[in-house]
Amino acid sequence: MPHKVSFEIRISGYTVAAIEYGDPNGTPMVALHGWLDNAASFDGLAQHLKGIRLIAIDLIGHGRSDHRPEVMPYYIWDNVNDLHAILDALSLNKVGLIGHSMGASIAMLFAGAFPERVDRLMLIEGLAPLFYEEEQLPQLFADAVIKRSKMVSKTLRPYSNYEDAIQARMNGRWPVSREAAEALLERGISKTEKGYIWSNDPKLMMPSLVRFSFSQISSFVKSVRSEAIVIRGSNGAADSIINPWLGDFYHVEVIDMEGGHHLHLEPKPAALLAERINQWA
Fold first, then answer.
1. Cβ neighbours, 10 Å, residue 273
2. φ, ψ for residue 220, nearest 5 deg
3. Is the Cα dihedral 141, 144, 150, 156 positive or negative?
4. 46, 2 in Cβ contact below 8 A?
């Protein structure tokens, strides 16, 4: 593999783990992974980069990055705040963003809030966060409170061996190949006396008490001013997290590709995506 260096960034009392790929003097791009994944999500894609400096982040609560305090929930807008601090720490005043799934939502929200700091945007199998219908908010809020109270005392069951963890990751809600699972587990699992456990903060599994509304998300998309490329997989999740807001972009190109929700982890789509990213060098 070309240039690949792991490093850490200190922001707001947190240590954020990251990987830098490609040309250290190339066009800077920051990559944001999906929910319960980590920076290794971009390993395959990074192998094909030319003239690009790709910085992939372990979002807080994921991979090798710190977790939030025990009393603090995980809300997607906190990741936008973290990204702002990360770019400042890296002295990146204007940058391209690549996001997958939840990472795509974070990238879009940031680009909408700070359009002057984003010049390119690639959203892979994602675009906007989950939302609550305004008229259903009281009931959905109550449901989330009850679910969180039931989950607070639950602990993760460790896997007795590494192979079981690999199989679990390969056969999750969005299946991935063995090679992809092994790459993700390299940063995403820890060995303890009781067995192997996920490095991700268990609180990430808890439902959000509050989410954006549909119209609030729309206002962020309308504020994006960078060139945006949206990648949809043939077996992905476009209907629910991508399609409703495509018409709100100032400038958007939609590319349909063969593959599922994690298509960027597969060799052929990863190479095709890298080709497109290299055009921004």
1. 24
2. -70, -45
3. negative
4. yes
Q: What is the CATH number of the domain that holds 243?
A: 3.40.50.1820
One-letter identity of residue 246: L
Closest CA to 83 of 4, 6, 18: 18
pTM over 0.85: yes
Helix 178-188 vs helix 162-170: crossing angle, to nearest 10: 120
Residue 218, pLDDT score:
96
- Residue range of the domain that includes 16: 4-132+211-278
The reply to whether 142 falls in a domain is no
State the total domains in the chain.
1
Classify residue 158: in a domain, yes or no.
no
| 128 domain residue, yes or no | yes
Q: Averaged over 87-100, what is the pLDDT? A: 97
- Phi, psi at 221, each rounded to 5°: -60, -40
- DSSP letter string over 50-91? SSEEEEEE--TTSTTSPPPPTTPPP-HHHHHHHHHHHHHHTT
Q: Which of 115-119, 185-189, 240-244 has the lowest mean pLDDT?
A: 240-244
Instruction: Say how far apart CA 163 and CA 228 lie, in whole Å.
Output: 39
- Do the domain assignments include residue 239? yes
Task: Write down the pLDDT at residue 185.
Answer: 93
User: Is 101 a catalytic site residue?
Assistant: yes
Q: Is 143 strand, coil or helix?
A: helix
Give CA–CA dist 83/86, Å, rounded. 5
The Cα 114–Cα 94 span in angstroms is 10
| Band of residue 1 on the pLDDT scale cut at 50, 70, 90 | low
Of the candidates 12, 65, 91, 101, the residue annotated as catalytic is 101
Instruction: State the Cα–Cα distance between residues 227 and 235, nearest whole angstrom.
Output: 25
Give the DSSP letter of residue 175.
-
Segment 24-51, tens digit of pLDDT: 999 999 999 999 999 999 999 999 999 9
